[in-house]
Automatic annotation (TrEMBL):
Annotated organism of origin: Sphingobium algorifonticola
Top-level taxonomic group: Bacteria
SUPFAM superfamilies, sorted: Putative DNA-binding domain (SSF46955)
GO annotation terms (biological process): regulation of DNA-templated transcription
MF annotations from Gene Ontology: DNA binding
Taxon lineage: Bacteria, Pseudomonadati, Pseudomonadota, Alphaproteobacteria, Sphingomonadales
Protein name: MerR family transcriptional regulator
HTH merR-type domain residues: 10-80
Length: 120
């Protein structure tokens, strides 16, 4: 039986796990990797996720499982540090992509969006 809670209610690890479709041990792993994620822990180490924690877990899930980030990449994205753009890594002295590069970028973005839609 699924119990619907109000938007401001705390969620247990089991409830959040079921909502996202990820095992509970994955949520505990994310707690060890993302320092921003600190749910309340009550007696017996029972976890209660506040609305801000739930939003953060949803964002982590989006980054890792939908957008395909690595844990390190997701950590940087959440910290506001962006990975270097692919164009900068390939040709750091080039300020603007060539028309061929721009076409390739558009094709890659289309493929990424198609994959993300297929996964969701």
């Amino acid at each position: 039986m699924i119990v619907m809670k109000s938007d401001g209610a705390f969620l247990t690890i089991g409830e959040l796990s079921a909502e996202l479709g990820v095992p509970q041990h994955i949520l505990r792993y994310w707690e060890s990797r993302f320092t921003q994620l600190r749910p309340l822990q009550r007696s017996g180490n029972r976890r209660y996720y506040r609305p801000a924690d739930v939003a953060l877990v949803r964002r982590i899930h989006q980054l890792l499982n939908v957008e395909g980030f690595t844990v390190r990449g997701a950590q940087k994205a959440l910290a506001g540090v962006e990975e270097p753009a692919a164009e900068a890594v390939v040709a750091p002295s080039v300020s603007a992509p060539s028309p061929a590069d721009a076409t390739l970028i558009v094709r890659l973005q289309t493929i990424r969006d198609t994959l993300a839609a297929a996964l969701s």
